[in-house]
């Protein structure tokens, strides 16, 4: 049997096995019913974050390959993991994820190159003492250079907006801003374009999804940042909208009309859109899991309606595919019942209402 025949046979077995695993809706589960296929029919990607440790769970790895056609490392492309000591890199986790993605026909996203958080302990002092922008430009060249042509989309700068810091431009007070001024953002994108001219370069952030007054400030300053970069010719291709919601706690409300207007502004500026980290926290909800699942799905659907209507969305990634790993490790089966339910699949890898909300959005 050829390797290709073996792969096709394995996929057929996986489709059949998944249909059995998801029994309650088995009649709707056919070989082409995965989220990756539903997204592809819309010319889009469905993906998820993952950690290399999760690939050791063969059951999950099969379902990951079946459901997703895009993947982003949860933490193994963040600088504290990649460069624990100056000039000493550990690409093992990111390499494993990238190899898995390419073996299963999945696109890879890179997250993230320049961020105020998840940095190694030595970095802030190095930034403060830096003579020039090589402290991040060389890093971008090294990391993107390694994965040139293999990682299709990068979150180049992450979470640079924070109006609560009180600056007139709405930018976050961080070591990058203090040392290099607002120009560090432009320079990071310029370095990224040099490192991989073909990659999609994304500015990634949160705070523009919600309905609160502070979300209005976030939207205003984010649009100001993106408009300025567009005028200056900074090579930004897309806006990454994270999409973290809370079903039962303050700060998780959604105003579809405000979101629709914001996305219209993004479209008018000529940017594409990536939903980069979608999840809905059910903490504080009732004991009945069915009620929480329905609430999570409702928020997901109401969020994705204006996203899909915008006509500019290339990909929707959830921040995890299954609740099984929400505590950052493989959880013993006897503890699954106590896990939060914020992702498309439960800890047993069964499809929840959120999965069906995603499937409907791709319809």
Descriptive key words:
about 375 residues; alpha/beta; 13 helices; about 15% strand; eight-stranded parallel β-barrel; globular; 9 strands
Report on the structure:
With 363 residues, the protein is of the alpha/beta class. It has two domains: 1-30; 34-362, TIM Barrel, CATH 3.20.20. The chain has 13 helices and nine strands. It has an eight-stranded parallel barrel with strand order 1-2-3-4-5-6-8-9, surrounded by six helices. Helix 2 (35-41) runs parallel beside helix 13 and helix 11 (256-268) packs parallel to helix 12 (289-310). The longest helix has 22 residues, at 289-310. It starts with a helix and ends with a helix. Residues 1-31 have low confidence and may be disordered.
Quickly describe the structure.
This protein is of the alpha/beta class and 363 residues long. The protein has helices at residues 3-21, 35-41, 58-67, 79-82, 92-103, 123-129, 134-146, 175-180, 183-195, 213-232, 256-268, 289-310, 353-362; strands at residues 45-50, 70-73, 107-115, 153-158, 200-205, 238-241, 244-246, 272-281, 313-318.
Question: Uncertain runs with pLDDT below 50, 5 residues or more?
Answer: 1-31
Task: Please name the fourth-level CATH homologous superfamily of the largest domain.
Answer: Glycosidases
Major sheet: arrangement of strands = 1-2-3-4-5-6-8-9
Number of helices in the DSSP assignment = 13
Determine the N-to-C terminus distance. Answer: 36 Å
How would you spell out the order of helices and strands?
A: HHEHEHHEHHEHHEHEEHEHEH
Described by strand count, sense and barrel closure, the largest sheet is: 8 strands, parallel, barrel
| CATH fold assignment of the largest domain | TIM Barrel
What share of residues is helical?
A: 40-55%
CATH architecture identity of the largest domain:
Alpha-Beta Barrel
The top level CATH class name of the largest domain: Alpha Beta
Shape type = globular
Which structural class do you get from the secondary structure elements? alpha/beta
Number of domains: 2
Percent of sequence in beta strands: 5-15%
Please tally the β strands and state the result. 9
Structural Rg: 20 Å
Provide mean pLDDT, rounded.
91
């Amino acid at each position: 049997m050829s390797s290709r025949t073996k792969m096709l046979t394995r996929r057929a077995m996986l489709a059949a096995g998944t249909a059995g695993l998801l029994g309650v809706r088995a009649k709707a589960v056919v070989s082409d019913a995965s989220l990756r296929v539903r997204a592809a029919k819309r010319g889009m990607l469905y993906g998820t974050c993952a950690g290399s440790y999760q690939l050791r769970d063969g059951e999950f790895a099969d379902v990951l390959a079946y459901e997703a056609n895009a993947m982003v490392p949860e933490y193994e492309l963040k600088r504290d993991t990649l460069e624990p000591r100056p000039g000493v890199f550990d690409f093992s986790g990111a390499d494993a994820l990238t190899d898995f993605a390419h073996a299963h026909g999945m696109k890879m996203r890179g997250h993230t190159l320049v961020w105020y958080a998840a940095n190694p302990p030595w970095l802030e002092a190095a930034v403060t003492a830096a003579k020039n922008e090589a402290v991040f430009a060389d890093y971008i060249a090294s990391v993107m250079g390694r994965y040139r042509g293999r990682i299709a989309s990068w979150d180049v700068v992450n979470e640079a907006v924070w109006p609560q810091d009180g600056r007139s431009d709405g930018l976050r007070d961080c070591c990058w801003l203090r040392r290099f001024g607002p120009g560090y953002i432009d320079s990071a994108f310029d370095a990224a374009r040099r490192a991989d001219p073909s990659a999609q370069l994304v500015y990634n952030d949160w705070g523009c999804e919600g309905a609160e007054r502070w979300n209005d400030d976030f939207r205003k300053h984010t649009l100001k940042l993106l408009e300025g970069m567009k005028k200056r010719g900074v090579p930004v291709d897309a806006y990454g909208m994270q999409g973290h919601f809370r079903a039962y706690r303050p700060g998780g409300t959604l105003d579809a009309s405000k979101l629709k207007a914001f996305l219209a502004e993004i479209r008018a500026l000529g940017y594409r859109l990536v939903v980069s980290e979608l999840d809905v926290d059910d903490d504080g909800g009732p004991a009945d899991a069915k009620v929480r699942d329905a609430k999570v799905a409702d928020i997901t659907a109401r969020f994705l309606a204006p996203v899909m209507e915008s006509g500019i969305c290339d990909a929707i990634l959830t921040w995890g595919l299954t609740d099984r790993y929400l505590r950052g490790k493989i959880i013993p089966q006897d503890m699954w019942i106590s896990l939060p339910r914020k992702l498309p699949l439960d800890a047993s890898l069964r499809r929840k209402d959120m999965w069906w909300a995603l499937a409907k959005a791709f319809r």
